[in-house]
Specification:
The complex is a heterodimer of chains A (613) and B (161).
Chain A: E1 7-12, H1 15-19, H2 22-35, E2 42-47, E3 59-62, E4 66-68, H3 76-85, E5 95-96, E6 101-102, H4 109-112, H5 130-135, H6 140-148, H7 151-161, H8 173-182, E7 189-194, H9 203-210, H10 212-226, E8 230-235, H11 240-255, E9 271-276, H12 286-293, E10 317-321, H13 322-334, H14 336-340, E11 350-357, E12 363-368, H15 373-380, E13 390-395, E14 401-404, H16 414-419, E15 428-433, H17 438-452, H18 458-475, H19 483-497, H20 501-505, H21 508-516, H22 518-526, E16 539-543, H23 553-557, E17 563-566, E18 570-573, H24 583-587, E19 593-597, H25 601-612
Helix pairs in contact in A: 6-10, 6-13, 7-8, 7-10, 9-10, 9-11, 10-13, 17-18, 17-21, 18-19, 19-21, 21-22
Chain B: H1 6-22, H2 29-40, H3 45-55, H4 59-68, E1 80-85, H5 88-92, H6 95-106, E2 119-124, E3 136-138, E4 141-143, H7 149-160
Parallel strand pairs in B: 1-2
Antiparallel strand pairs in B: 1-3, 3-4
Helix pairs in contact in B: 1-2, 2-3, 3-4
Classes of the chains: A alpha/beta (613), B alpha+beta (161).
The structure holds flavin mononucleotide (FMN), iron/sulfur cluster (2 copies) and FE2/S2 (inorganic) cluster (FES).
Residues 282, 300, 453-457, 460-461, 498-500, 502-503 of chain A line the site of one iron/sulfur cluster.
Amino acid sequence: MSQNKRMDVLLCCGSGCISAGAKKLKEKIIELSKKHNIENEINIIETGCMGPCNLGPVMTIYPEGVFYQKVKVEDIQEIVEEHFIKGRPVKRLMSQGDNKVISEKKEVPFFQNQVKVALENCGYLNPEKIEEYIALDGYEALVTSILEKTPEEVIQEIKDSGLRGRGGGGFPTGVKWGFVQANKNKPKYVVCNADEGDPGAFMDRSLLEGDPHRVLEGMLIAAYAVGASKGFFYIRAEYPLAVVRIKNAIEQARESGLLGENIFGTDFSFDAEVRMGAGAFVCGEETALINSIMGMRGQPNPKPPYPANSGAWQKPTLVNNVETLANLPTIMRKGAKWFSSMGTETSKGTKVFALTGDIKNTGLVEVPMGISLNDLIFNIGGGMAEGKKFKGVQLGGPSGGCLTAEDLQTQIDYESLKAKGAMMGSGGVIVMDDTKCMVNVAKFFLEFTVDESCGKCVPCRVGLKQMYNILDNITKGKGKKGDIERLITLGESIQKLSLCGLGQSAPNPVLSTIKNFREEYEAHINDKMCPTCVCTDLYHIEIDKDKCIGCSLCSRKCPVTCITGSRTEKYTIAQVDCIKCGNCIEVCPVSAIDKIPGMSSEVLNIANNIEED
Amino acid sequence: MSHTCDKDQALYDELKLVINEKKKLRNPLIEILHKAQDIFGYLPVEVQMFVAEQLEISLSKVYGVVTFYNRFSMTPRGKYLINVCTGTACYVKGAPKLIQMLSEELKIGMGETTPDNMFTLSEVRCVGACSLAPVLVIDEETYGRLDTRKKVKEILNRYRG
Ligand SMILES: Cc1cc2nc3c(=O)[nH]c(=O)nc-3n(C[C@H](O)[C@H](O)[C@H](O)COP(=O)(O)O)c2cc1C
Ligand code: SF4
Ligand code: SF4
Ligand code: FES
């Protein structure tokens, strides 16, 4: 890493740390090291995401490996003067363990139970410099693959490793390569699927931004194995930095002779370019993605034919996910045996997860397949935020399912998760506490899939909309007896009849929340009550007259002036007019105002009268 | 070119340069539309006609692509596009509340533009900064953990200048 300077300052410049102010830290470090005349002794490196985004901005200082978290601009002076100049690391900025301060990065609990393969270099190198990647054994796997192995041998190695697609489907990577290689039609294409449509997942983004050369090397190895001559990175437009980094990596690889004609003097020639998405979830589906690369509307085609036989411009096309490609260089370097020694019978190696929601350590982690959900959430993830209570965890995004506390012992592999009604998906793990309404969560996912349905086939376009309308009514107090059964019947037929994976999996969040949280649906439908006070029509806001001190703040803040009273009478809300903006709750100095599950009696009476009319 | 007025001529010239450069790629329509939207701020039918003419493809093909993808817009936008993330992580951490606050502060609804043409309020699905949820993006700047009105006001004020 270092150009023989005394110290390396690895400053995390992942999206999390940048919005937390990493760039300002850099300016300050430069300013102060100039002032103290040590600018030639320290090497500041902007790295990709180190993982623990909630602790940001973070930095690691070598040679010691000291890890600082939640660093503020005001802290830099101390870091420079104490640590850089006097060699005394600043303890108060380190991770605070149970009874000691943890100075070294590798001992911070968040990192301890992780095994990094795809993320090996993320956070350790400057992603804009090919030399740094090469210094960490980069492109070595490519050289040995091309010069010492036949394409068949490379494919066999990947088959033996047991690597399965990380984009959600979990199809064995080596087997897919075999199909593309067997097709003799030319030219062949490799496509890196960097559409990352699952909201709540950002591992692909971090890989592209934090270690772009690794993804490119993965693509080159794949291209050599299947005999492709042209590659496309299909990157969603929401990731502009990823686009810049990959373009830069391609440029550097071209200059170094790693891309182009007759690579390493062999007859393998390959080049790559970037294509941007334009905001359509369905474009993550491989046939839709290929249509989009060809400049068309991104609608899926029926399979077969699979892209392996007829993909881009009707030629054999290999589509692999970013993380799948990122695993390849390490597998080729360390061998299939090493990789397959990690994980379970059917799911080998490691998987990157994005931990988000009501969990303490939000961020990016990589763990061996087979660890339990419990370990992932409560050990590495640090458990629930602010002492909240665990309610459920959504895996696999809008195509996946929601699991409960009872499922926490489930081991993470493709089959076990599927058996529980969830799925691996791309690795988004969204943890929810007990303030979340599961009917509303299901509605949220359905709103997403209704919106993103490409409209090509009827079950998905019309059926999902029907499911959405039923759910919408339920959350508005208009649920009817039999709605739950109607949702199940509709959901199951949409699963069977839809053309592509979007429609086939879209009912999953609804079906799994019905299975695991049925009583919540029943409360909404039968009792017209949202137990967690999320669905606006199914709770009301009340002032506790015993607590109210009559200060009138709430009354003045109410946008529809429905709160009246006096210092002696105390204040009351006219329920029929209340729009539940919650302003009053926010301003009350004595917390006298609260949400109460269920409709207020006034509103309920009116609702009943309307129904009778 | 009948559909351009002088004021726009420079923009069309710029777009033409882009098209000429991208033309050598295979099927570059989406790439070109991205650039066209950067240049014009949105994609009115006239711009779509221009692209169609230049690429020698039908207007209906261009129109079909523009309407399919969420990122392309046919209505003008304010100076700053506020993209609120409505991805799952942000939803769980309070995106609905964030939208409510923004819309109260700006006095516009989702998809609308303020009368002074400063801000347009719009949604995106996940910007990959989920650990900072709830998140919004203005231009290319990401702001996270927006869970109080104070933080929202502070950010808007930066742009109000
Ligand atoms: C609706 C839908 C969305 C998808 N989105 C993605 C995505 O964002 N990224 C991805 O890699 N794969 C996605 N996939 C899976 C791809 O179709 C394809 O299986 C995958 O890219 C293959 O690569 P892999 O074998 O390396 O996983 C999606 C599939 C469906 C049905
Ligand atoms: S299942 Fe839905 S997204 Fe897939 S092709 Fe049919 S309509 Fe389009
Ligand atoms: S703000 Fe609270 S204390 Fe003041 S009048 Fe309202 S309910 Fe009573
Ligand atoms: S869900 Fe909002 S940034 Fe990912």
